[in-house]
Amino acid sequence: MKTLVTYMTKTGNTKRIAEAIYGEITGEKDIKDIKDVSNLEGYDLVFVGFPVMQFNVPENVTKFVSENVAGKNVAFFMTHAVPEGTPAIHSWTCSCTDLAASGNYLGIFGCQGELAQAIIDMLSKSDDPQMKAFAEMGPSTKGQPDESRVQKAREFAKEIQAKVQ
Ligand SMILES: Cc1cc2nc3c(=O)[nH]c(=O)nc-3n(C[C@H](O)[C@H](O)[C@H](O)COP(=O)(O)O)c2cc1C
């Protein structure tokens, strides 16, 4: 059994979760930036990770999954600035189940990730009240994902792998 952990990251949070998942997986395995993956040939299980951006799954991730997931066991992981339990998270989860429709969807893990200071600074200057409110939430995300979240990601990895063994 061969597993791929692939991810997109802008500021390192999703990569941290990717590495935790990768560390927990047994058997043959690879970890790669999604930019470096051309197809999923040879993999029995794939974890796809991304940061939520503009209230959505990033377009390159959507494209990659919809083009490659047919017939594959796939699980997702995401990081987002909003706290776990925020209603919007449900729609990102649904986007992933939809994206994986031609594959075998195994589950999704999500956790809070720190909003980079440069983004907080940029959004604070926005005229859009939604963006401003988002910027105000930024400081409360500092240090995420913390060790307890990383540990949950490890547990998720084990649960998913157990589903395909
Ligand atoms: C351009 C941009 C847009 C973002 N949009 C959202 C968003 O809509 N909802 C959210 O919860 N977080 C949003 N975030 C926060 C990121 O999802 C979060 O900081 C994530 O952990 C970043 O992951 P990374 O370090 O792997 O890039 C956004 C971040 C950036 C840079």
Major β-sheet strand ordering: 2-1-3-4-5
Ligand types = flavin mononucleotide
For the record, the CATH architecture stands as: 3-Layer(aba) Sandwich
Regarding CATH, which class? Answer: Alpha Beta
General form? globular
Largest sheet entry:
5 strands, parallel
In CATH terms, the superfamily is Flavodoxin domain
- The radius of gyration computed from the alpha-carbon positions, rounded to a whole number of angstroms, is 16 Å
Total domains? 1
- Strand % is 15-25%
* DSSP summary: helix tally: 6
Specify the helix fraction band: 40-55%
Description:
This protein is of the alpha/beta class and 165 residues long. The chain has one domain (2-115, 142-164): Flavodoxin domain (Rossmann fold), CATH 3.40.50. Helix content is 42%, strand content 22%. It has helices at residues 13-24, 59-68, 88-99, 117-124, 129-137, 147-164, and strands at 2-7, 28-33, 45-51, 73-80, 104-112. The radius of gyration is 16 Å and the shape is globular. The structure holds flavin mononucleotide. Flavin mononucleotide is lined by residues 9-15, 51-55, 79-82, 113-115, 119.
Short structural description:
The chain is an alpha/beta fold and 165 residues long. The chain has helices at residues 13-24, 59-68, 88-99, 117-124, 129-137, 147-164, and strands at 2-7, 28-33, 45-51, 73-80, 104-112.
